[in-house]
Amino acid sequence: MNASFDKTENAARQTLQNAYGDAEPLYKAQLSALNKLSRSPDAKAADCAAQFANTATLGERLQARLLYDWPASLKPENGIPQIADALGRTQFTRLAIEALLYEITVNDIPGGFHQGLKHWRHALATAVAAQTLAERTGLADPREAWMSGLLHDIGKTPLYIGLGADAVMIEQIAQATPWEVDEAERLLGGVSHGALSAFMADQWGFPAHVVDAIADRHELDDKEEDAGPDEPTLRLTAVLQLSDYLAWILGMGSVPERRHPTLSEAVTRLMQPERLATSGLLQRIHGEMTRLAGFYPIDLPGPGYWRENLLKANIQLGRVNAQLKHAAQHKGHTPSADTFANPAPRASLLAPHRSLDFREIFRSTAKAVRKDFQFGRVLLYRIASDRKTLKLFAQDGPQEHANEQQLASIPLEEGAESLLTAIRRRRPWLIQGANALERRMLDALGARELGVSPIHSDRSAHGVMLCHNGKRGRPLEALELGALGAVCREMGAALDHARQYARMRQSAERDALTGLNNRGYMDKRLAQEFAYARKQNAPLALVMMDIDHFKKFNDDFGHQEGDHVLKMVAGTLGALTRTDGVAGRFGGEEFMVILRGAQMADAMQYAERIRSGVASMGRALGKRRYQGRPLTISVGVSACQGELPDAEHLVKQADQALYLAKSRGRNRVAGDDKERTAA
Which tens digits make up the pLDDT trace of 350-367? Predict the structure, then answer.
């Protein structure tokens, strides 16, 4: 073990203690035993199979995994011992270890199944890439390379379990760059996931050079200078780092990346990437991951995603080269730490993140996409709340056909298979008129073909983006649609943020007890409505109401019943207020309703409807729940049509009218010295 790893041992032990306590799951002991048996020349396949004798559920999952790889030679009725004997010790232990690591990565995280799947997808992609690279270069043993890939992030599970809610902060940092994660993990948890992964691999008995490759994969340049007899470790580390890089290139990173991953200079010297036939390499890795996705519930990026990533890598390289050239021309100038930050991506990748307003996100993205990709027309649709319809939300480009209005709404029913496939599988699609609905869409838009890209995030499907170049424009290309998928993923993430912001804002503007708007929101909304009414010379009315003798409800029945009274009055307000009214709790037992476009007579009728509704409810409750204590409200109304100087005067008049209603006996409506009293 190297010195840097030794320094983390105490922190690693503490992290595992925080995550699992004194009793780690049984399959961790199984993993150690299987690893030892896999390297023992005297071990038999039956010895390996015996590790699953007392774990029926895990045995069933392992059996399914084994049958998936060898369906022709194995039979479902065969048990674990028979399957182990048929495959032999080496093949059996390899897949058994894979199955155990899947359990640790995915199912160990409480409530974090989907997050665990992201980590597992990245581990699988790295392992497949490492085995492929080892086979092609001869720099490492393919089985050890594969194992290093599976293990290199295994420490994330216990680290994130131990950190609990603080783990969210690590993900937030990961939005900026994946390489900053290690520092955040050391700060919050005392150890990085890479160091913890190496520690766990060592505890499970994996070879020292595998452990060191995991620990050192981000510091390869520093290790190359004093490699000496540790050369096998250096070569395996280079294979692992390039494999990790390729997994990110393929869009299979463990967290959303905001900067492109980087490679050590030692990788280019040891691996000689120019000789690797990169395109075929990536296709082989993606093909194997596609096969594995048939067994594991993991999502894979759509076509063209890795090409987009390669383009970004080349852009980054060009920018770095330009900065180095500039620095060389100005001797004595040392580039700052952010000199080699990633370049700003194309405008359409940035456009979704410029606002937290849904309409602005759609509008700006449509405009940027059309400009970047030179499409003739771009249309953005949102999935309606009923999940059965697409609603046009934004568009850019000349609208040359009047029939396009027919596509303001697209039902997701018979004929919409292409749209549904794009949304459900999260992959681009090409519409060319396969059925009546598709032909109607093409005809309405005046298009020969339509590109469809789903707008989605990891959590939600938001809608689709349609693009076309008319009947005589250039054909759409698969690479374009693949690159467009990256934009739509950014848009999906931005819409998630906008939705979260809207919920937070709504929560901040809601009264926690009644669910109505709170005082702060009502003050802000009244100022807006007053300004609009004065500018348009439009009528505006305000209704203020107060629960009569509310203090006595609290005194006679307790504060909990007082809260129920507030909720019931608020419920009546919500049920009897039309969409042109804004209701809120103004404070204590006082409520306010803003009536846009209402004259005094209209507002008085509304107020009487509310008063009567509360009184009817109060009479029923007085017979059972609140005997001897009738529930009623007093209401004051004011109205204006541009003649008052500000909104405060409207509130003052309504408050004076409310005082008048109270002074005249309560349970009545008053306004402009007019009043309506309970019958």
Answer: 778 777 788 888 999 999
